Amino acid sequence: xxxxxxxxxxxxxxxxxxxxxxxxxxxxxxxxxxxxxxxxxxxxxxxxxxxxxxxxxxxxxxxxxxxxxxxxxxxxxxxxxxxxxxxxxxxxxxxxxxxxxxxxxxxxxxxxxxxxxxxxxxxxxxxxxxxxxxxxxxxxxxxxxxxxxxxxxxxxxxxxxxxxxxxxxxxxxxxxxxxxxxxxxxxxxxxxxxxxxxxxxxxxxxxxxxxxxxxxxxxxxxxxxxxxxxxxxxxxxxxxxxxxxxxxxxxxxxxxxxxxxxxxxxxxxxxxxxxxxxxxxxxxxxxxxxxxxxxxxxxxxxxxxxxxxxxx
Length: 312
Ligand code: 13P
Ligand code: SF4
Description:
- Iminosuccinate binds at residues 25, 42, 113-115, 130, 199-201, 216.
- The protein is of the alpha/beta class.
- It has helices at residues 7-17, 30-35, 42-51, 63-72, 88-92, 95-104, 118-122, 133-138, 152-162, 181-190, 204-207, 216-225, 239-246, 276-285, 294-311; strands spanning 20-25, 38-40, 56-60, 77-79, 109-113, 126-128, 146-149, 167-168, 195-198, 212-213, 230-234, 251-254.
- The protein folds into three domains: 2-84 and 271-290, Rossmann fold; 89-172 and 297-311, NadA-like (Rossmann fold), CATH 3.40.50; 176-266, NadA-like (Rossmann fold, 3-Layer(aba) Sandwich), CATH 3.40.50.
- α3 (42-51) runs parallel beside α4, α4 crosses α15 and α12 (216-225) packs parallel to α13.
- The longest helix has 18 residues, at 294-311.
- It is globular, with a radius of gyration of 19 Å.
């Protein structure tokens, strides 16, 4: 019966049989991270996806990540455990609406966070992730106006960091917008020697309390290299798995969310749609598969490649 299936063993078997490689984001559940061939942040996963030589790329993350892998490596079959694993940022920005904004501001170039659909990337000039957004914006000549989409929190932080005014899209991540400043300050009172570290998708009042702001891999590295013994971590709670492996002797406290938030304890409901069972099933049946029409794939590749070149 399906109940008796040893998913770890079955996934390992399928990996070999199908010459598959499993790429997983830090927000995936621990068992998925443990069985993946590579775990990383969105930028690292893009570099990895581009160089995969295996026949099958299994992307344990959300849809836009699997789609980016397909755009970068279009000859490979790319599958993901749950086709409905979306992202509130990607959903906030439809290509037709971005196109309308571009038409209103024809002198602006468009920088989009990778958390977008292939159609949106296809009408963008450069992509970015949270680990290279500063560098990407700094690479644009000072007199060149910029539309930055879709994350307004990341955008506002980049504006502060670079001193550049940008036209910001009004999107946000439901997980990072759910952190409660009051609860965070209470947690800090209970752990006064802890360092608060936060992902730049968080709101400004959270970022103001943070000792360090960075991407998921940036946060892990900071916890590793800082002499502090306790950290309050404001990002999706899945990251604590890898972080704790890196700093086994340090105390990691997830930043608290509002009680009435839809995502219990800072978990991304999209990322958490993926389970070991669905990972096994998608590998067994090689579906759902991500496909991108060739015309869109070619156009979307340009801003992604620009990003990879600038941040190399
Ligand atoms: P990074 O891994 O690039 O920090 O992205 C975080 C995120 O929200 C992905 O959905
Ligand atoms: Fe999107 Fe936020 Fe989930 Fe990342 S954590 S996939 S940005 S909703």
